[in-house]
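We close this part of the discussion by returning to an individual protein. The sequence in question and its C-alpha cells are set out directly beneath this paragraph:
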Amino acid sequence: MDLFGGHHTFFDYWVALIGDGLTLIVAAVIGRLLWPLGRSEPRGAPADPLDFAAATRVAENIVSAEAADPLLRPESRSRLLSHGSRTGRSVLLLHGYTHAPDQYDELAEEFFARGYNVWVPRAPHHGTVDRRAHHQVEAGELTTYAAESLTVAAGLGDEVGVVGISGGGVLAAWLAQVRGDVVRRVLLLSPFFGPDPRQAPAFAVKPLILLYGRRILPDRVTARGYSLSAVAQYLAIARGLPRRPRRTGLLTAAVAISPLDGVVDRRAAVTVPARIAEANAIPLRVCELPESLGVRHDVLDLAALGTDGSDLRRRYVELYEGESQPTSGLARTAGASE
C-alpha cells in the first residue's frame, strides 16, 4: 500500500499539474522564503471539565444527532461504550483519515472489557454518504474536534488517555501537548507525521502544506481517494508540534507500526513521540509488527488474522497501559530514544 495509489508518487501529481519537475524546487524555495511554517507551541484553551452525567449527555446527543442524519453512513457513527458510571479509566479513540469510528470496533470492545469507558467520535466530514466530503476537512476543525472529544472522554473516567491511528495519531500527539494537564497515556498507531520518503521527500512536504493545504492550488485526488489538500491539514498539525515538547503529566507513551507501511515516514513515527516521551522522562515503547503478518498501514485491519489479530489488539492495550513485554510473542517491543 502506498500513499498515492498505484504507481503514482507525489512527484507524479506535481508534474501532471505543473508540467515541469523543476517547479517543485522553485516552490520549495519560495515557500521557505515567503511563507515560513515554523513550529510553534500548540495552543488550545482548556475546556471546563465535565462530570460523568454531563459527558454522557454530550456523547449521547452526538450519537443521537448522527443517527438522525441521513447524510451519515450508519456504520460510521460515533460510539460510546459506557459502564453506566464513572470508571477509574477512560480512553479516547481517534480514527484515521478517510475512516470512521467503526475502524476501532474490536479495539474499543477490548478496552471496554478491561473496565474502560470508551469514546470513539467521528471526525469532521468523515463517515458521510458522500465519500468525497472528507476532502474539505480543515486543520482547525480537526484540532477543535480532538479537544472537544477529549473533554467528553475526561468526564467518563478518573484517568484518561488517547489512542490515535494515522492522522488520528497526529491529533493524539497534539492533545498530549495541548492538554497535557489531562492526557496520561498515549498510543500512536502508524502515526502520520510525514509521508513515506519514497512517496514524498522531506523537502516537498512544506510546499505541499503551503500550496495544497492553504488551497492555493486546486486540489488533487489520488487513486486511493486521498485529497492532497486534506492530507496537508494533518501534516500542518504535525509540523506545528514543538521540536522541544513541554513536560506534562504523561505516564506512558507507545507506538505500533508495521515495516510494510508505505504511507508514513516510519522514522518520524518514532522520533516525534520519542521527544514527547523524553520530555516527560518516560520510555517510549515501540512495537514493530512482524512482517509475516502482511499488515500494512492500517494496523487495526486485523480481522483476517484470526487469533493473531486478537492477540495484537490485546497487545495494543498492553502498550497503552505501559506493559513492556508482550504476552503473545507476536510483536517485538523495544524502548526507543531519539
User: Anything to note?
Assistant: Confidence is low (pLDDT under 50) at residues 10-34. DSSP finds ten helices and eight strands in the chain. Residues 1-36+197-240 form one domain. Residues 137 and 308 are 35 Å apart (CA to CA).
